[in-house]
Specification:
The chain folds into 2 domains: 6-135, Creatinase/prolidase N-terminal domain (Creatine Amidinohydrolase, Chain A, domain 1, 3-Layer(aba) Sandwich), CATH 3.40.350.10; 140-394, Creatinase/methionine aminopeptidase superfamily (Creatine Amidinohydrolase, Alpha-Beta Complex), CATH 3.90.230. Helix 1 (6-22) crosses helix 6 (128-135) and helix 8 (156-163) crosses helix 9. The radius of gyration is 22 Å and the shape is elongated. The protein is of the alpha+beta class. It is built from 11 helices and 19 strands. The strands form 5 sheets. The chain has a 6-stranded mixed beta sheet with strand order 4-3-2-1-5-6. It starts with 5 loop residues before the first helix and ends with a strand.
Length: 395
C-alpha cells in the first residue's frame, strides 16, 4: 500500500493554512475525493477538517482501519452521526469557526447548509481557488508520479500501428488502447473537476465525429456510445483518409499525464502532411514559452499568432462556434487543474507547474489535426514528460 509521506502532507497543509489565514477563513472542511487524497492520502473518509492553525482532523464514518493505514495524518477519528462533530472538534481543540471554508464548486447546497449549521458558522467562503493554487505547484514526490504516468503512454503509437486495421470502429480501437493502459495499472477512472465534467479514459474519434459539440469543457470529444454520456469513442467505423484523434491519459497512483497522437487509415494527402508538420512545429515553439518569464495567457496568444502565420486560424482549437479559448491546462490529480493557458489569465507561470500543451485544429473535411504533450515548468526551460513517437501513424 502506497501512502503519501507525512512530510509531504504536512507541507501541503501548511501552504494551505497560510492561504486560509490570508483569506480569514477559520476552518476548512474538505469533502471532494481528489482534495481529500491530496491533503490526507486517502479518500476513505467523510470529512477532513483543516483549521487555520494546528493539526487537521480526519473524520471517518466507516473503515477506520483502512483510513488509518492509508493516511499519515495523526488525528483520525471515527464517528456515526454529524451531531457528534461539535463535541469532537472541541475535544480536538479545534474552535468552531466564524467563517467556514467549503469547496463550494462541488459541494451541494444542502451539504453546505448542514455543515454551516453543525459548525455554527456565521458565514461560508469558497476555498476552491485556494486549494487549486496549492495543488498547481507540484512537489518532487508528485512530479515522479506524473513522470510514471507519462511513461505508460509511450507505447500507444506502436500499439495503434500494430493493431489498427481497416474496418475497425472507434470503440474497438479505444478498447485496445484502454486494455493496454489498464494492464499498465491505469485505475480506469478520470477525475475532472466540476459538475457533470465526465470523461472516459481517453478520446478516440475519427473524422467528422470530432465536429460534434460536447457539454464537457474540451475542444473535441466525439459522439460516445450513447447520448446518455455523449463523449468518447462511438461504434462508427473509422473512415479511410480521415484523421483519428488518439488523446489518452496515463495514470499512476492518482496522478495523470495527457498525450495526443494522430493516426490515419490510408495515405495522407499533401495538406494533412503539411498541416500536421505545422502543428508539431507550433507545439514545439509554444513550449518555449513554458517558463517563469511568461504568463498563462501568453501561450494562447502566441498560439493564435502562429495559427495566423500558418494560415489555419479558422480551424484553431475548433471550428465555427465551437472553439475552445485555451491551448493547454494544468494536470495532476485532476485533468483540469491550474494553470489554464487561456485568454485573459495574466498570471505568471511558476516552476513546479505541470501543463498539458495541446495546439489542435479542427478541419471539417479531415478531422482533428494536432498534438499534445505534458510538460514540467522549471526555472529555465520546460521538461517534456510525454515522450512517445510523434510522427503521423499511417496504416
Amino acid at each position: 500500500m502506497n501512502t503519501v509521506p507525512e512530510t509531504e502532507l504536512n507541507n501541503r497543509i501548511e501552504k494551505f493554512q497560510e492561504k486560509l489565514s490570508n483569506k480569514e477563513v477559520d476552518l476548512a472542511v474538505i469533502i471532494e475525493n481528489a482534495d481529500l487524497f491530496y491533503f490526507s492520502g486517502t479518500i476513505q473518509a467523510e470529512y477532513l477538517f483543516i483549521p487555520q492553525q494546528g493539526q487537521p482532523l480526519l473524520l471517518v464514518r466507516q473503515g477506520l482501519d483502512r483510513a488509518s493505514k492509508e493516511s499519515n495524518l495523526e488525528k483520525i477519528i471515527t464517528f456515526k452521526s454529524s451531531k457528534e462533530i461539535p463535541e469532537i472538534l472541541k475535544k480536538q481543540e479545534i474552535k468552531l469557526p466564524q467563517n467556514l471554508g467549503l469547496e463550494l464548486d462541488v459541494v451541494a447546497y444542502e451539504e453546505a447548509a448542514k455543515l454551516q449549521n453543525i459548525c455554527q458558522a456565521d458565514s461560508l467562503s469558497s476555498i476552491t481557488t485556494l486549494i487549486r493554487q496549492v495543488k498547481m505547484i507540484k512537489s518532487e514526490y508528485e512530479i515522479k508520479k506524473i513522470k510514471r504516468a507519462a511513461d505508460k503512454l509511450k507505447g500507444i503509437p506502436n500499439l495503434v500501428a500494430d493493431k489498427l486495421k481497416s474496418g475497425f470502429s472507434e470503440l474497438e480501437l479505444s478498447a485496445l488502447i484502454e486494455q493496454y493502459l489498464r494492464q499498465k495499472g491505469h485505475a480506469g477512472l478520470i477525475r475532472m473537476r466540476g459538475l457533470n465534467n465526465e470523461i472516459p479514459m481517453g478520446i478516440c474519434v475519427a473524422g467528422a465525429n470530432a465536429k460534434l459539440p460536447i457539454k464537457t469543457d474540451a475542444p473535441f470529444g466525439g459522439a460516445g456510445v450513447h447520448s446518455s454520456l455523449g463523449i468518447g469513442a462511438s461504434k462508427q467505423k473509422i473512415p479511410t483518409g480521415k484523421t483519428i484523434l488518439i488523446d489518452y491519459l496515463g495514470h499512476h497512483q492518482g496522478y495523470y499525464a495527457d498525450q495526443t497522437r494522430l493516426a490515419i487509415i490510408g495515405e495522407p494527402n499533401a495538406y494533412l502532411k503539411k498541416t500536421y508538420q505545422q502543428m508539431m512545429e507550433m507545439e514545439s515553439r509554444l513550449s518555449k514559452y513554458l517558463t517563469p518569464d511568461y504568463s498563462w495567457q501568453t501561450l494562447y496568444t502566441k498560439g493564435v499568432e502562429l495559427a495566423t502565420e500558418f494560415e489555419v486560424e479558422e480551424y484553431f482549437m475548433g471550428h465555427g462556434e465551437n472553439k475552445a479559448q485555451y491551448v493547454g491546462h494544468g494536470i495532476g490529480l485532476e485533468l483540469n487543474e491550474f494553470p489554464f493557458l487561456a485568454k485573459g489569465l495574466d498570471f505568471p507561470l511558476k516552476p513546479g507547474m505541470v501543463v498539458a500543451l495541446e495546439p489542435k485544429l479542427l478541419v471539417p473535411e479531415i478531422g482533428v489535426i494536432g498534438i499534445e504533450n505534458t510538460y514540467l515548468v522549471t526555472e529555465d526551460k520546460p521538461e517534456k514528460l510525454t515522450t512517445a513517437p510523434e510522427e503521423l501513424i499511417v496504416i
